[in-house]
Amino acid sequence: MDQTATAHTLPESCDFTVFGGTGDLALRKLLPALYHRDLEGQLPGDARILGVSRSVLDDEGWREEVRTALTTHVAPDDLDTETVDRFLGRLRHLMLDAEQPDHWHRFHALLKDRPRAEQTVRVFYLAVAPSLFGAISRRLDEIGVVDERARVVLEKPIGHDLASAQAVNDAVGHVFDESQIFRIDHYLGKESVQNLLVTRFANAFLEPLWNSRWVDHVQITVAESLGVGDRGGYYDHAGAMRDMVQNHLLQLLCLVAMEPPSHVGRETVRDEKLKVLQALKPMTPADVDRDTVRGRYSAGLVDGAPVASYVDDLGRSAQHAGSSRTETFVALRTEVQNWRWAGVPFYLRTGKRMDRRASEIIVVFKAPPHHMFPNSEGVTEPNRLHIQVQPDEGMRLHLTAKEPGPGGIRLRPVSLDLSYATTFEQRLPDAYERLLMDVIKGNPTLFMRRDEVEAAWTWVEPILTRWATSPDQPLRYPAGTSGPIAATTLLERDGRSWQESDQ
Question: Which one of 36, 93, 217, 248 is the catalytic residue?
Answer without folding.
Answer: 248
